[in-house]
Design brief:
CATH class of chain B: Mainly Alpha
CATH architecture of chain B: Orthogonal Bundle
Largest sheet of chain A: 6 strands, mixed
Number of strands of chain B: 4
CATH class of the largest domain in chain A: Alpha Beta
Distance between the termini of chain A: 38 Å
Strand content of chain A: 15-25%
Strand order of the largest sheet of chain B: 1-4
Radius of gyration of chain B: 18 Å
CATH topology of the largest domain in chain A: Rossmann fold
Number of domains of chain B: 1
Shape of chain B: globular
Number of strands of chain A: 9
Strand content of chain B: under 5%
Oligomer: heterodimer
Helix content of chain B: over 70%
Order of helices and strands of chain B: HHHHEEEHHHHEHHH
Shape of chain A: globular
Strand order of the largest sheet of chain A: 5-6-7-3-8-9
Structural class of chain A: alpha/beta
Order of helices and strands of chain A: EEEHEHEHHHHEHEHEEHH
Largest interface: A-B, 26 and 20 residues
Number of helices of chain A: 10
Chain lengths: ~240, ~290
């Protein structure tokens, strides 16, 4: 069986500057994979390339299971079943919490299913239900992160791309978010997670990639990654090795 | 006091047309981040479409107005395809130049077809209404009703429909909206289509109120509407409507109490002062978050 998502030889450039150099990665159904690396390594760019938000200069992106999606517009890629939790939450701050959830199910035309999913989200995130009529911009950082995750789940994705889900959250909330990652995965959603918090990410991931300067410099199980020098290099720089 | 209320009523009637053109400017700018300088020309298209229909076919307003609005909408969709979509996401000056060029083409095109002199739009609505000594012609009330219907329709679309919600989402975070499944080209078409339909309604209103249309009528009208959008800020469509009507009232009061020749200067002066004191506009802008 082919991988749920397979990225092969991905190159991305912003103008003349090439920022991603021949990245290969994949994720199988039911897995949590982490993409680790320091700030500016290119993690977010890879996610955006998968989503069609930045144009890949070269390479193949296959989702789901072998379908080539490179070059498709973002809304068509989303319709194939990819959800995105962007870095910094990025909830629609002037829309209500309820409208944010509705936006998550934009491609779902069956209103009964939409309402059913909203009820599911209220069960998973009780705090969101209490805030449903509020403007999303008025929520706390932690609540906004919950809303961003709920919004992404509203499309019932098979693959969830999470970009720095723990960024800017209090330590207790960080633990909650990673617990949530496990819960979502147990519901059958595969997750590709970009994180700077390597320790926490490696606790929940089945497999991890290390990214440095736009190159994959290592990959393996969490134990292999923790024991490798590559992780120190990826986070601290070459002098650490 | 009677004169004051009369000027206010006159101002509200004219201001409602500014409001719907300004609303279109604001919608296109806040959603697509494009300054559509050809937007006021779609009002001119609406006015000339009213002239053509009234001259060649019928003066029935139930036919003239919808066809004029439709003509402006089609012109808007053409502008969207030729100058807005290709420049979206680029530097704002790119769209400025592209739509500005198209604006000149449209003005000169209309001049070539209809001539430089105003053409007469021969549609009459007889009668006046008087309340407490304040008079409004039925034509004024009809065009005001059209503007209000457009504003209510636009507000309903943006607040209560699926694509309206998507439009607000795109205006705030277009990448996130796209990744949630929103087709940004469709939002662009719907936004520019709605905006230019409103401009067309304003254009036909002006043509009916003044019984004429000219190739360059969009220019001053567009400038005023653009200033309304800047002064209101692009965060709330209700704010843009309010400032449009306010400009109309200010103009009417200045013309009534001071001098008609100072009308534009005083009204614009006040609006520029407001902009100086509140650069994000009275009701705030997304760009100043």
């Amino acid at each position: 069986m082919s991988a749920l998502l397979k990225v092969t030889g991905l190159h991305v450039a912003y103008g003349p500057a090439r920022v991603i150099h021949g990245v290969d990665l994949e994720i199988n159904s039911g897995e949590i994979r982490a993409l680790l690396g320091a700030n500016g390594a290119g993690k977010t760019t890879i996610l955006k390339a998968i989503l069609g938000l930045v144009r890949a200069a070269q390479g193949a992106i296959e989702f789901p299971e072998g379908r080539l999606v490179r070059g498709l517009p973002p809304h068509k890629i989303a319709a194939l079943g990819i959800g995105w939790v962007p870095e910094g939450r990025q909830v629609f701050s002037t829309l209500s919490v309820y409208d944010n959830l509705l936006m998550g199910a934009f491609n779902e035309h069956d209103q009964q299913k939409v309402q059913q999913r909203i009820e599911e989200m209220y069960k998973l995130f009780p705090i969101i239900e209490t805030r449903r009529g509020q403007i999303a911009g008025s929520l706390s950082g932690g609540e906004q992160q919950m809303l961003a995750i709920a919004r992404a789940l509203m499309s019932a994705p098979t693959l969830l791309l999470m970009d720095e889900p723990s960024l800017g959250l209090a330590p207790r909330l960080v633990r909650d978010v990673f617990e949530l990652v496990r819960t979502i995965n147990q519901r059958g959603v595969s997750i590709l997670m970009v994180e700077q918090n390597a320790r926490q990410a490696l606790r929940v991931a089945n497999w991890a990639y290390l990214l440095e300067g736009g190159h994959i410099v290592g990959s393996g199980t969490p134990t292999q990654i923790e024991q490798s020098d590559a992780i120190k290099r990826a986070y601290i720089g070459r002098q650490a090795s | 006091m009677e004169q004051f209320f009369q000027q206010v009523v006159n101002g509200v009637m004219v201001g409602s047309s500014y409001a719907i053109v300004a609303l279109g400017f604001g919608l296109t700018f806040s959603v697509m981040h494009v300054l559509n300088l050809a937007h006021p020309e779609t009002a001119m298209v609406g006015a000339f479409a009213a002239f053509v229909v009234a001259t060649l076919f019928t003066t029935n307003l139930l036919v003239v107005i919808p066809l004029a609005v439709l003509a402006a909408l089609l012109a808007g969709l053409l502008i969207e395809r030729l100058a807005i979509r290709p420049t979206r996401g680029r530097h704002i000056l790119t769209s400025f130049i592209a739509t500005g060029g198209l604006s000149i083409v449209m003005q000169n095109g209309a001049q070539r077809i209809f001539g430089v002199d105003p053409v007469r739009v021969a549609v009459q609505v007889e009668g006046v209404q008087t309340v407490g000594g304040v008079i409004a012609s039925n034509m004024q009330l009809m065009t005001f009703g059209l503007a209000v219907a457009m504003m209510v329709g636009a507000r309903y679309y943006v607040r209560n429909t699926r694509w309206g919600r998507a439009t607000r989402a795109v205006s705030e975070k277009h990448e996130v909206a796209q990744a949630l499944g929103v087709d940004i080209n469709r939002v662009s078409q719907l936004t520019v289509g709605l905006s230019t339909a409103m401009a067309g309604a304003a254009g036909v209103s002006l043509a009916l109120l003044h019984s004429q249309a000219t190739p360059f009528m969009g220019a001053i009208f567009g400038t005023k509407s653009f200033v309304c959008m800047l002064v209101a800020g692009n965060r709330h469509i209700e704010g843009i409507m309010f400032v449009g009507i306010l400009l109309g009232v200010l103009e009417a009061l200045v013309a009534g109490y001071i001098s008609a020749s100072l009308r534009d200067m005083v009204a614009f002066g006040i609006l520029v002062l407001v902009l100086y004191l509140r650069p994000a506009g009275i009701f705030g802008s997304y760009e100043h978050d």
